Amino acid sequence: MPEIGSYSLHTIETGRFGLDGGAMFGIVPKPLWERKISADELNRIPLHARCLLLQGDGRLILVDNGIGTKQNDKFRSIYAVDDESMNLDDSLAEAGFHRQEITDVILTHLHFDHCGGSTFMADDSARMAFDNATFHVQSEHWDWALKSNVREKASFLPDNIQPLAESGQLNLIEGHTELFPGVELIPVDGHTKAMQLVRIHDADHSLLFTADLLPTHAHLSPAWNMSYDLWPMTTIKEKGNILHRATEEGWHLFFEHDPTIGLCDVHLSERGPVIANPRPLSEL
């Protein structure tokens, strides 16, 4: 079992889905990005909703929780949602846990593929799925999501957000902080306002949950960014800063959406940052 500091680390696979390859790679031409991740007949690339579970210091901390199970058939078809072969509850059970044991949920941001598992449908209404957990969200991002905007309206879904607003389980975070010993929250603004990356660290190791700053290993290059990013030039700057620190300090990168690589190291080459030693988290 991989450990960093006082925490044991578990990969929690909540399902697979697909997004348009052009949207995922922005200005990068398809002949280039398709060498790394192939698209289906509808131009969707396969993606995972891979979450991270930390066990230690009397806490069971889940970082993001996937798409969830509330969607209708049309939604599931558009986004090629597949949670039959892997899902949140089965993955938690495989690690030896149940959702009611979760003490904390860190949400990197409130787009549906990161927070949809926070709620479930019962009697035609969305209800909280983790009764005993505190949900940690950046305050600035929470306010941004409640106001919504034309670009992100389809990503900030009321059934994911409203029950959390009414639950009494929400803890709003003010900027960069050490939430718990060895668990650092790093806000970034390029993808959406005040998304938070999560770094788990001790004196010898650091693991960065990259969320949508680096959704896959193919996004390490500066210009390989998503059209979903609200401020792409900010993403480029933030990505450069994070990758510089990762290479200098020897961080491991944990990819939430990569279809094949869960964990890797990163090194600088003549052409910029490149991945090294791709492997599952269990081999950390």
Structure description:
22% of the residues lie in helices and 33% in strands. It has a single domain, classed as Ribonuclease Z/Hydroxyacylglutathione hydrolase-like (Metallo-beta-lactamase, Chain A), CATH 3.60.15. Strand 14 and strand 15 (263-269) form a beta hairpin. The strands form three sheets. A seven-stranded mixed beta sheet has the order 1-2-3-4-5-8-9. The model has no long low-confidence stretch (mean pLDDT 96). The termini are close together. The protein is an alpha+beta fold.
Query: Can you tell me the CATH superfamily?
Result: Ribonuclease Z/Hydroxyacylglutathione hydrolase-like
Helical segment count: 8
Would you tell me the overall average pLDDT?
96
Number of strands: 16
Choose one word for the global shape: globular
N/C terminus separation: 9 Å
Q: Strand-residue fraction?
A: 25-35%
Q: TL;DR?
A:
22% of the residues lie in helices and 33% in strands. It has eight helices and 16 strands.
Summarize this structure as a short list of keywords or feature phrases:
single chain, 284 residues, alpha+beta, Metallo-beta-lactamase, Chain A, seven-stranded mixed β-sheet
Topology of helices and strands:
Layout: E1 3-4, E2 7-20, H1 21-25, H2 30-33, E3 44-56, E4 59-63, H3 73-78, H4 88-94, E5 104-106, H5 112-115, E6 119-122, E7 125-128, E8 134-138, H6 139-147, H7 158-167, E9 170-173, E10 177-180, E11 183-188, E12 195-201, E13 206-209, H8 232-249, E14 252-254, E15 263-269, E16 272-279
Parallel strand pairs: 4-5, 5-8, 8-9, 13-14
Antiparallel strand pairs: 1-2, 2-3, 3-4, 6-7, 10-11, 11-12, 12-13, 14-15, 15-16
